[in-house]
Amino acid sequence: MTKILLTGGSGFIAAHILEQLLARGHSVVTTVRSEDKAQRIRDAHKDLDASRLEVAIVPDIARVDAFDEVVKTPGLEAVLHTASPFHFKWTDAQKELIDPAVVGTTAILKALKRDAPGVKRVVVTSSFASVIDEAKTEDPNTTFTEEFWNPVTVEDIGRSPATAYRASKKLAEKAAWDFVKDEKPGFDLVTLTPPLVLGPVVHHFADLNSINTSNERVVDLVKGKWKDAVAPTGAAYLWIDVRDLALSHILALEKPEAGGKRLFTTAGWFSNAEIAKVVRKNFPELGDRLPAEGTKGGELPPKDKVYGYDNSATEKILGIKWKRLEESITDLVKDIKGFGI
Fold it and tell me: Where does the NAD-dependent epimerase/dehydratase domain start and stop, copy by copy (predicted)?
């Protein structure tokens, strides 16, 4: 049993990580941004021995001293750093997106080096956004792997919300690797670069309007917004189930051979057209809201119009059998239906 610091514990991905960590016998110190979120986590684990779960408040992860106190928790041996913004709704990308991502990552690494000598591994949640080059998404001669970095710079952030997000993820991840290279702390680093994350929700959300960003497309589908035309899938075309991603974080922490590695965690191709097909098949009662079979839109491009990918190195390390899209979407829609749809 290991004592682990998990940042951003009320988030979509981290909430699944928390449940799996506790199920595997680990003790967890997790951070959230408000007392309200902290109390929800405590209430959800009332039957757990108090020594196995502590919740700390970190209101602003962009502060350079954000994690200074929590890293002093006695007995910490590893850190899973998931706290970072994922949304396209801001007025100042530098202040609201880039700074929280970069400062939040470097601040916790500095604090760990200074005040947490027992920590031997740090796992950071990055994103496929730090990998993918938007200029090559239609190039079949490009194969994205763990070695790729997107070419976006700070100067590009005004181009589009998606470009700004890619910049934030790349800059934060690069800053983490640079810190370990330059500062030589007593811990090693693992980063994960998942693409679109789908699947059921275990964290609290008030209503469907506040569901996590990556699952919004499925909410739109079951609300009837795709009835006449399936929405475009986007440029990524790769996905992973949130439960597999949570397990990937834990295995990245537990497996010695993961140390110093950048992991490309994906279950493979998906499309909005395929999501619509899954929901039509498994939820016929929603039929009047769903696009009929044959409705155009949301398809994968032909193979000569899309990039390739290879995450075999990651699969060799983690040894995970990825969940199928049908299971992921079916479990998610069951959650969505709980809100009366």
Answer: 4-261
Whether the Cβ atoms of residue 187 and residue 122 lie closer than 8 Å to each other: yes
Cβ–Cβ under 8 Å, residues 53 and 32? no
pLDDT, tens digit (0-9, with 9 covering 90-100), for 73-117: 999 999 999 987 555 566 787 888 888 888 889 999 999 999 999
Domain membership of residue 299 (yes or no) is: no
- Predicted TM-score (pTM) of this structure: 0.95
Residue type, 265: T
Instruction: Please give the residue range of the domain that contains residue 71.
Output: 3-199+240-266+308-320
Q: List % helix, strand, coil for the chain (3-state, nearest 5).
A: 45, 15, 40
* Residue 178 domain-assigned (yes or no): yes
Supply the angle between the helices 325-337 and 272-282 in degrees, to the nearest 10. Answer: 60
H or E element in which residue 122 lies:
strand 121-125
In a domain, 212, yes or no: no
Count of domains for the chain: 1
Identify whether 222 is part of a domain: no
Q: Give, for 198, the enclosing helix (H) or strand (E).
A: strand 196-198
